[in-house]
Backbone:
């Protein structure tokens, strides 16, 4: 008993001691900026015991049931200095929450380290950020090559970029427009190895970024941030090439960076359908890192292009920033096309088979500039003038055969020659003032624009009518049309923010918009003998204006995890004008009033998962063609009659968006659902008439009606395997259009479904192999309730495969295959082209800075385009020529040198979402 009692007491003491020291230990790891570090390794050492864990998505870690009160914590993460810290606490059972552990960044160049402490994709409200270093690329790769690797981002063969199913319309570098925001200019010129990140942003404009109130339809933009060590230096690339069939290519791009100063020069000359600047058409060009240089063959026709552009940016201290660009392009395009058009009516089907030849010459200048001035922390001013000039010469001819219910009704030819000039001036100014009370803000945005069009149009139409009961009649119509049109617009938006608490605010806003249109047309009839007569009945002077005044209020709540806003606006609108025909003035005036609710909700589950919902409304005025009271009968078989009594449309738009990046698995999911219902929709009414002198006439008229709506759903799911060596991406969309049209004054509802599903794979087992197979299926069906003979369906299977294989260290062979299988198109136009492009490249000199390439395009000589459009009661199948088989030998030289460092923080944001000068880009509110 004497031996047992001390043993029992000792056990009790030991148990009590254990009970007191069993506790949980937790903490959080951050960097020097306060940002949580994800997936950092945390080691707990107590005596001989060692436990490992990793920080979660919020940078937090925890150890369960720890016995010792004296222990060592070791934290390490790539890109940061390791930290060892010893802790000593009193014994007890209460949980231990350690003070935040801060890691310092390693003092190494970013090119030498991959930072894995943060996820490769981060999501915050309107912004998705992809870290460029997590998508390894070969030397000489361009920004476009990086975009092709990003989940949810697609780059087509012409270089057009879409993100989450929506087209990218603008590109910025470090938050500033690059060449006016021209997409291909940036994606096909910037080296990928200078990029820190690529950011996909839903941008609502500078004023919305200041106030935090985001209403309306955002612009999908792409912002590239430059690596800190690439902010000082230069890079340049030049290419010369020549091929058979007199094909040629020459290009030069040169860029210098000196921290807060940047200069870029771009030039291009080719006849391979490759455009640098986007003035409204043309394919892309590029080819760094093994891409296809100069192949723009997916744009219609044969195109020769010459262009040059300058871009400049400079910060003058911390208060003033100036940046802008000038671009010039000359484009000559020749197109051969065949069209089969079906005009469907309740009792008949009118088919027109047409062949046309067209030459289009565009001459364009564009100048944009921006001045940002921040005199102090309370005020911000941005002034943005712009100018553009476009000259166009359009010459073409066509021949057609028309049948009515399989009976030949007419055949003929037409010639046209159109010359137009379009100068455009504009300017925007943004003023923002912060008041003394935190969160109180006043901003004013004003834009003004003036555009002119002077056009001379010479049209000749000759055709033969085949009368139902026998016989024929011949129609000759030659007219010269002189149009002088001008429109000027002024828009002003005033916003005042009043904070109600630390997390809530009330915004009052007022918007005024007025657009004035002045349209003059002089029409001359030309006889076969060449005599010219002024046609007073087809000449007119038509002026009109559309103005709106909107008064609104929005309430906003901004929490750490979520924010929401809702508001209400009242908007009266006035559409008024006058027309002068044959000396008679006819006035008209239409008014409307809209109550416009708006709502927005955003929830951030984490830095990698977010949900957004948004509703807004907008009014759309009719166009000049839809309003003009004087008919346009330049084509006597298809005259157009405007309706000056039209009212404005009003559209309701509802959007849901869910984005999720799974940090542990790398899976990415994007989902988007959008609905649009339009009140007072402007639609066409096609009315048939039989004119004894002209034959069958199809008049286009316009009216307002209800019932039009659309829905669109899009998803993208991407799953990587083995550290992104293998990536499978599934994406698809479903669109429904409830289209309203009228034929012979009878209403028809068209139900148009468009489905698309794609599978793409990235296969990169090692640095020497890049394989990218893909498959896409699309299905388009259209049914009608009043015109049953207009029900159609078409489908397309598209198989794609492109590859790059590197061998013998400096050799590269690449291929790009595309096979299309089309079903349901008119048999005369249905083609199933198989396009094969390939190249062989030799890299040499230091850092592989020079390449010699032999490339072949469309080796089977099958490149052509096939498309279908459905508008109202009209179905049009089209086939056009494209750039066909050729072979080219080209030489490319690249030079690059950088010695940059992290620039100072300048031009910090004035409010939620403004871009700063440090290259961190957009930040959601």
Residues:
């Amino acid at each position: 008993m004497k031996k047992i009692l001390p043993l029992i007491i000792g056990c009790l003491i030991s148990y009590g001691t254990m009970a007191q020291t069993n506790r949980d230990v937790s903490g959080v790891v951050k960097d020097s900026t306060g940002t949580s570090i994800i997936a950092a390794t945390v080691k707990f050492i107590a005596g001989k015991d060692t436990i490992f864990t990793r920080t979660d998505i919020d940078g937090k870690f925890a150890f369960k049931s720890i016995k010792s009160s004296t222990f060592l914590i070791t934290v390490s993460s790539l890109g940061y200095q390791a930290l060892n810290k010893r802790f000593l606490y009193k014994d007890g059972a209460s949980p231990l929450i350690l003070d935040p552990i801060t890691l310092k960044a390693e003092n190494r160049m970013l090119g030498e380290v991959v930072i894995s402490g943060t996820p490769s994709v981060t999501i915050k409200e309107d912004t998705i950020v992809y870290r460029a270093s997590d998508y390894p690329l070969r030397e000489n790769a361009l920004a476009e090559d990086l975009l092709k690797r990003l989940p949810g981002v697609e780059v087509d063969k012409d270089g057009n970029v879409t993100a989450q199913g929506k087209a990218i319309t603008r590109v910025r570098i470090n938050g500033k427009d690059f060449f006016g925001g021209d997409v291909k200019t940036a994606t096909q010129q910037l080296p990928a190895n200078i990029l820190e990140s690529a950011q996909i942003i839903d941008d609502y404009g500078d004023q919305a970024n200041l106030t935090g109130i985001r209403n309306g339809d955002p612009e999908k933009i792409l912002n590239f941030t430059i690596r800190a060590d690439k902010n000082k230096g230069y890079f340049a690339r030049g290419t010369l090439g020549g091929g058979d069939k007199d094909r040629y290519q020459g290009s030069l791009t040169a860029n210098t960076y000196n921290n807060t100063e940047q200069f870029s020069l771009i030039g291009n000359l080719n006849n391979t359908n490759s455009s640098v600047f986007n003035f409204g058409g043309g394919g892309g060009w590029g080819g760094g890192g093994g891409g296809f240089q100069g192949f723009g063959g997916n744009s219609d026709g044969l195109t020769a292009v010459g262009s040059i552009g300058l871009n400049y940016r400079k910060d003058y201290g911390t208060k003033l920033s100036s940046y802008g660009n000038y671009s010039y392009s000359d484009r000559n395009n020749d197109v051969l096309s065949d069209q089969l058009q079906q005009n469907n009516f309740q009792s008949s089907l009118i088919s027109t088979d047409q062949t046309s030849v067209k030459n289009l010459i565009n001459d364009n200048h564009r100048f944009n500039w921006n001045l940002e001035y921040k005199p102090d922390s309370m005020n911000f001013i941005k002034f943005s003038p712009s100018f553009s000039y476009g000259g166009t010469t359009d010459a073409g001819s066509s021949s057609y055969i028309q049948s009515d219910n399989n009976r030949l009704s007419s055949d003929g030819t037409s010639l046209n020659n159109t010359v137009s000039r379009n100068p455009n001036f504009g300017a925007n100014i943004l003023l923002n003032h912060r008041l003394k009370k935190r969160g109180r803000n006043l901003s004013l945005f004003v834009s003004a624009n003036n555009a002119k069009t002077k056009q001379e149009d010479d049209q000749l139409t000759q055709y033969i009518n085949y009368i139902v009961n026998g016989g024929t009649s011949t129609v000759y119509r030659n007219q010269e049309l002189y149009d002088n049109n001008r429109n000027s617009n002024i828009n002003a938006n005033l916003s005042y923010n009043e904070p109600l608490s630390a997390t809530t605010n009330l915004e009052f806003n007022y918007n005024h918009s007025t657009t004035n249109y002045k349209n003059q047309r002089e029409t001359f009839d030309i006889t076969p003998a060449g005599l010219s007569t002024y046609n007073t009945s087809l000449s007119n002077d038509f002026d009109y204006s559309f103005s709106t005044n909107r008064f609104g209020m929005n309430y906003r709540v901004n929490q750490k995890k979520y924010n929401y806003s809702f508001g209400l606006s009242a908007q009266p609108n006035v559409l008024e004008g006058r027309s002068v025909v044959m000396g008679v003035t006819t006035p008209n005036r239409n008014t409307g009033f809209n109550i416009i609710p708006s709502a927005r909700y955003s929830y951030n589950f984490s830095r990698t998962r977010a949900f957004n919902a948004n509703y807004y409304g907008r009014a759309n005025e009719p166009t000049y063609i839809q309003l003009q009271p004087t008919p346009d009968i330049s084509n006597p078989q298809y005259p157009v009659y405007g309706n000056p009594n039209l009212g404005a449309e009003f559209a309701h738009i509802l959007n849901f968006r869910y984005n999720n990046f799974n940090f542990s698995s790398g899976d990415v999911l994007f989902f988007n659902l959008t609905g649009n219902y339009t009140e007072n929709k402007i639609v066409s009414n096609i009315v048939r008439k039989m004119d004894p002198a002209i034959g069958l006439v199809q008049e286009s008229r316009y009216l307002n009606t209800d019932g039009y709506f659309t829905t669109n759903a899009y998803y993208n799911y991407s799953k990587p395997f083995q550290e992104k060596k293998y990536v499978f991406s599934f994406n698809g969309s479903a669109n429904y259009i409830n289209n309203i049209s009228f034929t012979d004054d009878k209403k028809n509802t068209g139900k148009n479904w468009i489905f698309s599903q794609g599978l793409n794979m990235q296969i990169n087992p090692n640095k020497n192999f890049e394989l990218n197979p893909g498959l896409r299926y699309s299905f388009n069906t259209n049914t009608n309730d009043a015109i049953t003979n207009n029900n159609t369906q078409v489908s397309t299977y598209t198989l794609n495969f492109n590859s790059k294989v590197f061998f013998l260290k400096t050799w590269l062979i690449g291929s790009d295959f595309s096979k299309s299988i089309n079903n349901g198109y008119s048999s005369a136009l249905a083609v199933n082209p198989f396009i094969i492009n390939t190249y062989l490249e030799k890299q040499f000199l230091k850092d592989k800075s020079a390449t010699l390439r032999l490339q072949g395009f469309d080796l089977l000589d099958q490149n052509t385009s096939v498309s279908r459009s459905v508008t109202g009661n009209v179905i049009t199948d089209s086939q056009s020529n494209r750039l066909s088989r050729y072979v080219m030998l080209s030489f490319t030289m690249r030079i690059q040198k950088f010695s940059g460092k992290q620039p100072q923080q300048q031009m910090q944001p004035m409010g939620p979402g403004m871009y700063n000068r440090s290259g961190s880009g957009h930040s959601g509110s």
